[in-house]
Amino acid sequence: xxxxxxxxxxxxxxxxxxxxxxxxxxxxxxxxxxxxxxxxxxxxxxxxxxxxxxxxxxxxxxxxxxxxxxxxxxxxxxxxxxxxxxxxxxxxxxxxxxxxxxxxxxxxxxxxxxxxxxxxxxxxxxxxxxxxxxxxxxxxxxxxxxxxxxxxxxxxxxxxxxxxxxxxxxxxxxxxxxxxxxxxxxxxxxxxxxxxxxxxxxxxxxxxxxxxxxxxxxxxxxxxxxxxxxxxxxxxxxxxxxxxxxxxxxxxxxxx
Length: 256
Known about the structure:
Layout: H1 10-14, H2 24-41, H3 43-66, H4 74-87, H5 92-111, H6 116-139, H7 141-162, H8 170-189, H9 196-220, H10 229-234, H11 237-255
Helix pairs in contact: 2-3, 2-7, 3-4, 3-6, 4-5, 4-6, 5-6, 6-7, 6-11, 7-8, 7-9, 8-9, 9-11
């Protein structure tokens, strides 16, 4: 889903251009359909989908680090990342316990010879994002559907413009514009639990934080080009999902 132009700068290290070649658009559509189906089926289906995504993202990241000589156990890291969204089915306490279990697995693998730093870089943020998605769905499935639509709007705008762009800013700016258009529609029709003003606040949250997720995904891998397809599929969620989950809980507690 991504590629970069090599420059010895922070922009070259973290920035990326979506790849225009291959079945990326079709896979993106299939992912959106799968995520919508999971939301329709319920929180367990959401946990199953995002636990697989987090596990694959962790394993692909571990293998990318192995290519540069820093090895960790991909199976352990995959299991650790998957534990968090599954544990989030039990609520905030389960979510926290899942994070503790994930970190413990990484530390134990380090005792057995794995690179602990690589393990943490590969596991914690994908697990945290996936777990936050599950916790959001458990709190209010309508809010998760809104988040899915907004993130998908960002990714569509980013891909359509960014894959042919000369600047790394064109794709994200197009994605932000797409988010604001969808936010306008959401605020008018008041989809999910949000009133008009809250709809704009949560939509702006996605517009600001979704672009930062791609940079964070690049930082988790050895290079921006070595961030695997699963991590790139999850990257827009890395920051926005935990913040959205926290803000949603506060918002619902106030209006409840």
